[in-house]
Every structure is written in structure tokens, then in C-alpha cells.
Write a sequence for this structure.
């Protein structure tokens, strides 16, 4: 009698539990929201990388432009300090505009070598002798 | 089912029939629903790759496979996943609170009893099939199931008038 009652209780409980069903699962092969998050992260990483490349490219371009300005400046005012001109810039100037390069060299020599403009300058005295 | 690999259509059919119960089984072992879905998908995608020979009892094989995968996942997480307020059961005419109460009652069972109840009630296995799936003697499966139901009845009685 007791056992029958127990069996009945068990059946009732099983029936009750079966009124609940497992939550439906997504379709086979469909990526889950978590995977989409990974894709978003990957996209963000690509954007950051692209931005980095652009920044590097822009800085490089700016550097070249500055170099060009230096060369142009070298043509117009050769009296600038020597340290501000790079060897590639001078090479380019020599190849592109030999007159400007000569002018630059003349100016440089005047600023670096002792002046012979003054009448009492040592070089002028020595030259006379 | 033949001796070679399962066909894609058969695998799809198994997924449609047992996928949800398998995911709920993983959840009942303490894994969140999204990860449980991933575990089930992974097992089925491996089957679709065709590297696994057709098991004698595909359903029992699937439950064993997702059980092992969930054990690995838990090991990799290095922690026991807390079963939270996420539902992995649904009741068409039941309120969320009642669903959560049933889940909580299941959660309070020892894991070996909990999975016995799940396999009997939601996977529709016989005690012999449960014993084969969990690799335990049938008497052990029967006693675990009986103890689990006694506890569940005690726990759910006030709410359900069982």
C-alpha cells in the first residue's frame, strides 16, 4: 500500500516536471552572441591598426614636406645654420638646382671661414705680403 | 544507423530532436546557457566533420559527449560556475518564478542525482540507459533517481501541492 502510494507520488512528480521543457537551442552552425562580440573586437582591432598606419603615414609625409621646406629655404636664404640641412636635402639641392647650391656653399663659407671684407683683416694683410 | 559515420541529415535530425535537451543537460551541470549551446554545437559540428564512427546508441553517445565537454569546460574555467537566475527550462503555462523554483530545487540536489533526474525526465531514458550513459550499475542509477525525487518532492511540495 505504502509502495503504491510512493509510486503514485513519483509519477505525479515526473508528470509535473515534464510540464517544463528544455529551453530551445539556436540553429546548428549559427554563431552565438559571444562570437559576434569577438568579431566586434576584431573589427575594433583592425580599425585601430588602420588608424595607426594612417598616423604613421601622415607623420612620414609631414617629415618629407618639412625636408622640402628646408631645401626651398636653402635656396632663398643660405645663411641658415648648417645643422638644419640634411645631407639628402643638400644632395637633392645640388642635383636639382646647382646655382642655388653654389650660392648656399658661398654663404656657408662666408659664415664659417674668417672674413676678408675688413681692410685690417689678417687674411687681407697676409695676401698683400 | 550503420557502422560508418552518420549522415548530415541524420545529425541535423538528432540536433533538432535532442539539441535543446542536451543544452539544458549541460546547464543542469552548472554551465551558463550560452556556453551550453556552444558545447552542444561543438559536439554536433564534430559529428558533421565525419571523424566519429556511428555509435551504437547515438543519443547516449551525445549525452556522454556533452557531459565530457562540459567537464572540460568547467576545468578550463578553473571554477565552479554558479547557476544563476538564467532559465534553461521553459514552461508554456508556467510563470518564470515557478521555473526558477524548479531549477533551484534541481540545483540543490547532488550533481549525480540531478543528472539522473534530468536523463530520466527530459532525455526520456530508461534506468538501464542512464546506467549505460553514466557508466554506473543500474541499481545505483535507480537509487540515485529515487533519492533525488524524494528530495524534489519535499522541496517542491508547498508550491505545487504534489
Amino acid at each position: 500500500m505504502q509502495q503504491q502510494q510512493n509510486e503514485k507520488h513519483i509519477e505525479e512528480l515526473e508528470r509535473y516536471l515534464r510540464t517544463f521543457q528544455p529551453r530551445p537551442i539556436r540553429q546548428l552552425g549559427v554563431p552565438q552572441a559571444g562570437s559576434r562580440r569577438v568579431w566586434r573586437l576584431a573589427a575594433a582591432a583592425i580599425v585601430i591598426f588602420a588608424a595607426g598606419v594612417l598616423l604613421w603615414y601622415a607623420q612620414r609625409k609631414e617629415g618629407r614636406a618639412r625636408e622640402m621646406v628646408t631645401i626651398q629655404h636653402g635656396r632663398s636664404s643660405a645663411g641658415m645654420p648648417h645643422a638644419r640641412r640634411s645631407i639628402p636635402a643638400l644632395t637633392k639641392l645640388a642635383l636639382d638646382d646647382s646655382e642655388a647650391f653654389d650660392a648656399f656653399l658661398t654663404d656657408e663659407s662666408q659664415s664659417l671661414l674668417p672674413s676678408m671684407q675688413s681692410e685690417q683683416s689678417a687674411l687681407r694683410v697676409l695676401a698683400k705680403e | 544507423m550503420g557502422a560508418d559515420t552518420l549522415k548530415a541529415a541524420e545529425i541535423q535530425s538528432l540536433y533538432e530532436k535532442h539539441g535543446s535537451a542536451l543544452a539544458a543537460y549541460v546547464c543542469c551541470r552548472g554551465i551558463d546557457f550560452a556556453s551550453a549551446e556552444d558545447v552542444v554545437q561543438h559536439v554536433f559540428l564534430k559529428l558533421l566533420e565525419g571523424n566519429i564512427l556511428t555509435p551504437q546508441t547515438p543519443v547516449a553517445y551525445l549525452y556522454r559527449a556533452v557531459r565530457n565537454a562540459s567537464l572540460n569546460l568547467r576545468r578550463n574555467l578553473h571554477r565552479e560556475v554558479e547557476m544563476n537566475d538564467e532559465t534553461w527550462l521553459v514552461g508554456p503555462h508556467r510563470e518564470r518564478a515557478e521555473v526558477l523554483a524548479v531549477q533551484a530545487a534541481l540545483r540543490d540536489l547532488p550533481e549525480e542525482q540531478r543528472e539522473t533526474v534530468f536523463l530520466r525526465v527530459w532525455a526520456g531514458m530508461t534506468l538501464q540507459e542512464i546506467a549505460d550513459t553514466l557508466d554506473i550499475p543500474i541499481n545505483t542509477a535507480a537509487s540515485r533517481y529515487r533519492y533525488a525525487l524524494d528530495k524534489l518532492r519535499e522541496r517542491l511540495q508547498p508550491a505545487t501541492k504534489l
Summary: The helical segments of chain B are 8-28, 33-49, 58-77, 96-107, 111-121, 127-134, 138-160. The first helix of chain B runs from residue 8 to 28. Residues 26 and 36 of chain B are 5 Å apart (CA to CA).
